[in-house]
C-alpha cells in the first residue's frame, strides 16, 4: 500500500498491471501496512489464491488491515460530514468487511521450512529482524533462487534478533530505505530522559507518535528501563492504541521471535495505562495534567495521535518526540522539517509545541546493516535489484554494493520490466 505524498497515495486506486484472479500466491514478508495494506483490494478485485507468511505476521497483518479499514472509513465519514473532500462523496479504499474477507486466505509458514507451492516452486522464510515475524523470502523456481529481503532489521536492535544473512541467491531484491544513512551511535535512554524531563518540568504533555507494531513496544521498553532506573518523572505513561495493546499480546504469544522474557513483557505492560476505548481517549485528551502518550500512527498520517495533536500541538509546553522514519509528504516529515502549521481533518493548526527527534531508533537496518546482510554470500549473485527506498538512498547503496562486492546492481523504476 502506497503511503506519503498524494501522487503516491493515489496509486492505491489504480488496478494492478496483472489480473488479481490470475495470481496464485502472495508471499508476505511481514505485517507492516506498506507491505500488506493492499490485500483487501486484491481480494476485492478477484484474488482467490493463498497468502503465505509466518504465524506472528498473520496475527499482525490481521490487526493492521482491519485497523487501516476502520481509519479509512472514519476519515471518509469525517470528510463527508465536514465537506472537506474534493470528491462529491468520499469513500474508503476498502471497508472493514472487505478487510475481514482477506483472513481465510492466510496460510502459516514456519521459519526455515521449505513450503512447496508447485511441482518446481519452493519458498523458504528466513528471519529478518525488523518486527515480530518478519522474514526474507527465498524463492526457488526453474533452478534459480530469487531472494526477497523484505525489510531488514538492525544488527543491534533493542527488541529484535539480528537478521539472518543469506548464503546464496541468483537474484536478490533488497530494500534500500536507509541506503545512504548510518544510524548514529546515541544513547536513546539519555535522549528520551532529557526530552521528557524538560517537557514535564514545563507542565507539558509528551506525545510520542509510534507505529503500533514494534516501535510502540520499543519505546515502552525504553521508558520501562528509565522507570526501573528512577530516571523518569512520576507522571502517567499511556499507550493509546488498540492495535498496540493487541501487539503486546502477540509479543507474549511468540517469545522466540524477540529478546524480552515473559516477566519483562508483563512488567512493562503493567507500567502503562492501556487505552482501547475511544471514550477513554477523549477523557485523556481533555485531562491537561502532564503525561506521556504513545499513540499511533508513527508518521502522523492517521490514528489517535491526531486527536492529541489537535489539542496540544498549539501549546508551547508540549513536546512531540518523533522516533522513526518520516516519509516524504507525511505530517511527521513536515513537523520534522519545521512546519509552522499542520492540517488535521481539514483544519490548520499552528505548531507551537517543541518538535524533537530521537535518531537511530528505526527498525530498518542502515547502510552498514544492509551491506552486512549481503556479506555472507558464498558467490556473487547474477544481479541485485534495489527496491523499497527513495532514489537518493537507493543510488548511494548501489554504489556501495558495487564498490565493496563488485555485484551488478539495478534500481528498477515503477512499471519497468526485466527478463531474468
Furnish the topology, listing elements before pairings:
Layout (H helix, E strand, L loop, with lengths): L5 H4 L15 E3 L5 H4 L2 H6 L5 E4 L1 H28 L13 H5 L5 E3 L5 E5 L2 E7 L7 E7 L2 E5 L22 E5 L12 H14 L4 E4 L5 H14 L8 E4 L1 H12 L8 H10 L1 E3 L2 H8 L6 E4 L9 H8 L6 E4 L8 H6 L4 E4 L2 E4 L3 E4 L9 H8 L8 E5 L3 H15 L3 E2 L10
Parallel strand pairs: 1-2, 2-3, 7-8, 8-17, 9-12, 9-13, 10-11, 10-12, 13-16, 17-18
Antiparallel strand pairs: 4-5, 5-6, 6-7, 14-15
Helix pairs in contact: 4-8, 6-7
Characterize the structure shown:
By secondary structure, the protein is α/β, with parallel strands linked by helices. The chain has two domains: 6-181 and 365-410, Metallo-beta-lactamase, Chain A, CATH 3.60.15.10; 188-357, Rossmann fold (3-Layer(aba) Sandwich), CATH 3.40.50. 34% of the residues lie in helices and 18% in strands. The chain contains 14 helices and 18 strands.
Instruction: Note the main sheet.
Output: 7 strands, mixed
Distance between the termini: 26 Å
| Amount of helix | 25-40%
Detail the poorly predicted runs: none
Overall body shape: globular
Alpha-beta classification: alpha/beta
Q: How confident overall, as mean pLDDT?
A: 94
Into which percentage range does the β-strand content fall? 15-25%
CATH top-level class of the largest domain: Alpha Beta
Order of strands across the biggest sheet?
4-5-6-7-8-17-18
